[in-house]
Specification:
Shape: globular
Number of helices: 13
Order of helices and strands: HHHHEHEHEHEHHEHEHEHEH
Low-confidence stretches: 1-15
Strand content: 5-15%
GO molecular function, one term: deoxyribose-phosphate aldolase activity
CATH architecture: Alpha-Beta Barrel
Radius of gyration: 19 Å
EC number: 4.1.2.4
CATH topology: TIM Barrel
Number of domains: 1
Largest sheet: 8 strands, parallel
Number of strands: 8
CATH class: Alpha Beta
Catalytic activity: 2-deoxy-D-ribose 5-phosphate = D-glyceraldehyde 3-phosphate + acetaldehyde
Protein name: Deoxyribose-phosphate aldolase
Family: Belongs to the DeoC/FbaB aldolase family. DeoC type 2 subfamily.
Structural class: alpha/beta
Mean pLDDT: 91
Helix content: 40-55%
Distance between the termini: 41 Å
Strand order of the largest sheet: 7-6-5-4-3-2-1-8
Length: about 325
Amino acid sequence: MPITASSAATAPTGGSGLADVTSSDAALRRFLHGLPGVDQVGAEARAASLATRSIKTTAKEQALDLAIRMVDLTTLEGSDTHGKVRALAAKAVRPDPADPACPSAAAVCVYPDMVATAKETLGDSGVHVAAVATAFPSGRAALDIKLADTRDAVEAGADEIDMVIDRGAFLSGRYLQVFEEIVAVREACVRADGEDAHLKVIFETGELQTYDNVRRVSWLAMLAGAHFIKTSTGKVQPAATLPVTLVMLEAVRDFRRQTGQMVGVKPAGGIRTSKDAIKYLVMVNEVAGADWLDPDWFRFGASTLLNDLLMQRTKLRTGRYSGPDYFTLD
């Protein structure tokens, strides 16, 4: 059934009266354009300042383990095979086979046709299966196709759905269309057993042009019921950046203050080193708060970050580097 403005307004928005914002296209536009503008220079300066923070060795050990637990280990290539997905899933469960104390990753992120393979391999390990959907990475498809894509992934066992918004619609100012699509996809995430697959909404921030647009789309997605907001597909540059993530963290912080609801954040694409990951963790703590320092509320979308985290972890534990080829290449 098509989502209308009146039915879309029932998306969870807490008790702050924000549901009225989505009662019409004009109301949504007034709200989004009434949000405080982002000071570009200030945002970039603060992100740069937070990136200079140093942490002590014991805190670094904890940060590396936390970052590993936050990784969505990802393979999203046309050349993906069932064997590659099985190997990736096995690595997510035991990132360092030589160290049983090494924590597991948060999730394995794959295309919908690989969900069943990932689910079978992961078993009851606790590692989630995330599936990209809604005509990833472009988001350019009819709504019924996007919903079918989502339902296929959910029925195959996906615990999480990473959807992409129609950036053309957003940049054209068709905010209610984007809002209604998010609401519809979230409804498609409901399983027969009543358990929802969590919905991550991907913005492709490298195409959104301004920080003001990043703030607006963050609020739009949260109003529509997103469980997570995510920077990028990893297919467009620039992908995740510290200033963009700063703006998104401010948005989830402010949304919680107004509604009492927490929404997660996932920077994805271009985060390759432990040093980068720790910069993001410092920012999460300083901007959103310690409650977000948990895999339930913050993730890294990455295919290469995990190996560097493992190398740095081994260095702290043994006093020597293991080398870039010590761990499997993904």
